[in-house]
Amino acid sequence: MSERSALLRRIRAWLALFLVCLVLSGLTAFPLVSELRWANALLDNAWLRHVGDGLVRADSEYPFLLYGTDWLAFAHLVIAVFFYGVHRDPVRNIWIVEAGMIACAGIIPLALICAPVRGIPVWWSLIDMSFGAFGVIPLLILRRMIKRLEAMPADAGRAPSVAPAPAPAGTRV
Fold first, then answer.
1. Residue 94 contacts residue 149 (beta carbons within 8 Å)
2. Contact of 157 with 4, CB cutoff 8 Å
3. HEC states along 29-53?
4. Residue 161: what are its φ and ψ, rounded to 5°?
5. Which of 64, 87, 94, 97 is the most buried (most CB within 10 A)?
């Protein structure tokens, strides 16, 4: 296996890890009510009970509010689709990785600004910000590997091709 194909394989493995996490994160936004019931059965935490009560009430009295979290889940899945471009051609589509890095960075000011406005505890904001901090790690690794791939000659690691022998003088080709 050539160095180039080995690097491409590692890029795709890191990309798969990031996509699995992105999709799972999105899918968990669909069943919030049942997830909070499950979490409250496992943990004794006043904030989680408060959130669970709010979700149960919203689900029974104002179910349209949870439609917003359905869109959140859908957004995660749509973003994951864009990363298919990185799978197809990492060098040409490195901008998708860089846009993902910007989105991860954007989580921090969003949590710092919106969480206090919404009455979210500081410790929960830290959990939210950790998604950006940990999410950017595989993207930084991906970007570094893609830059290495870009610097490699296109034929790195391939066996040299044998040029055809020149045609004898006076023959038509």
1. no
2. yes
3. CCCHHHHHHHHHHHCCCHHHHHHHH
4. -80, 150
5. 97
- Residue carrying the six token digits 């490699």: 152
Closest CA to 81 of 10, 31, 26: 26
- Contacts of residue 112, Cβ cutoff 8 Å, sequence gap at least 6: 125, 129
Q: pLDDT of 105-155, one tens digit each? A: 999 999 999 999 999 999 999 999 999 999 999 999 999 999 999 999 876
What amino acid occupies position 86?
Answer: V
Six token digits for residue 171: 């023959």
Tokens of 37: 């019931």
Residues 6 or more apart whose CB falls under 8 angstroms from that of 111 comprise 120, 125, 128, 129
Return the HEC string of the chain: CCHHHHHHHHHHHHHHHHHHHHHHHHHCCCCHHHHHHHHHHHCCCHHHHHHHHHHHHHHHHCHHHHHHHHHHHHHHHHHHHHCHHHHHCCCCCHHHHHHHHHHHHHHHHHHHHHHHHHCCCHHHHHHHHHHHHHHHHHHHHHHHHHHHHHHCCCCCCCCCCCCCCCCCCCCCC
Which pTM does this prediction carry? 0.81
